[in-house]
Write a structure and sequence with these properties.
With 312 residues, the chain is mainly α. 77% of the residues lie in helices and 3% in strands. It folds into two domains: 50-201 and 291-304, Serine Threonine Protein Phosphatase 5, Tetratricopeptide repeat (Alpha Horseshoe); 204-289. The chain is elongated, with a radius of gyration of 36 Å.
Length: 312
């Protein structure tokens, strides 16, 4: 039989063994949790680093390079929502890079993997249509945003862009109606449109006819510096022609006469171009007034969720 002291010693040994087992299990559990946490942080860091490159390129005003990186992210992602968002981001950057053809194709891929209604995609579709002078198509997307249950910022921006599409078709009444369709119509936009309507375009035909007299075609369209230059240069050539003819320097006379014919016909075509430029400048000023610095840009830190920040 075991003595009392031996029994107590045996019990103490069992307690020590149990304590060591418990401690070992606890340390193993802590180690496993640490490994899992480290792996998750590494994965998140990798995703963050991957997303930061195209965002950095976009911030450095390199939209084409940014678009390529977003496309790469989309191809590597297995999540349909993230893939669709990255394709949209690539299309947006291609639009900024003045590549509407590529932007439209990439936007189609975004829709293929993420067919659900997506407001940023509808808005970008409208912008691409305007860039490609497809104004009827732009109307479809922009009117859809205005008439549907969308946030006020989307409607206010879409209304201004819709007004621009009408202005580019010289339908000022429709442009005014578009501005007024916004939840918060732009007072500056209405003012710019009224100023445009009260003005008059220059006639390229009249500009060309006035250009028969050097400088007058430019003066007609308000390009006074070009008009003065035309008068001086044509006057110098005529003076040179007169002097060389008087001195019978026919070789120099021929060269100066050729130059004068070139500058004289340039005065006529210059009058036509000046009128065209004047009309285009007037149209652009009205478009800028309608937009009144309105713009949007993505909030990149929220990817794969696309949130747009509007400024008015």
């Amino acid at each position: 039989m075991l003595t009392r002291s031996e029994t107590m010693s045996s019990q103490q040994e069992r307690k020590n063994d149990n304590h060591m087992k418990t401690t070992t299990q606890l340390l193993a559990t802590i180690a496993i949790c640490h490994l899992i946490t480290s792996y998750s942080i590494a994965q998140n860091s990798s995703t963050s680093d991957s997303a930061s490159l195209p965002v950095t390129l976009a911030a450095e005003n390199e939209p084409a390079s940014s678009a390529l990186e977003f496309r790469r992210m989309a191809m590597e992602s297995s999540d349909s929502r993230e893939k669709g968002a990255c394709f949209w981001a690539a299309a947006y950057e291609y639009w900024k890079a003045d590549r509407p053809d590529l932007a439209d194709k990439i936007l189609d891929r975004s829709e293929d993997v993420l067919p659900d209604p997506f407001l940023p995609r509808t808005l970008l579709r409208g912008e691409l249509a305007i860039t490609s002078d497809k104004f009827t198509e732009a109307d479809f997307y922009l009117e859809g945003l205005i008439k549907s249950d969308t946030p006020a910022d989307y409607k206010n921006y879409a209304a201004r862009r819709l007004a621009v599409t009408q202005l580019l078709r010289y339908d000022t009444d429709a442009a005014r109606a578009a501005i007024l369709s916004a939840p918060q119509p732009s007072a500056n936009g209405l003012k710019a449109l009224e100023e445009y309507r009260s003005g008059r375009d220059k006639s390229p035909t009249i500009g060309g006819l006035l250009g028969i007299i050097p400088g007058l075609g430019y003066f007609y369209s308000g390009e006074y510096a070009n008009g003065v230059r035309s008068i001086i240069l044509n006057g110098l050539f005529i003076w040179g022609m007169s002097g060389t003819a008087k001195n019978e320097q026919w070789g120099a006379f021929g060269v100066i006469t050729f130059c004068e014919i070139t500058w004289y016909t340039g005065s006529i075509y210059g009058g036509i171009d000046a009128a065209t430029r004047s009309n285009l400048d007037r149209l652009n000023r009205c478009e800028e007034g309608i937009m009144d610095n309105a713009a949007f840009e993505p909030e990149w830190k929220s990817i794969p969720i696309i949130n747009l920040n509007f400024t008015f």
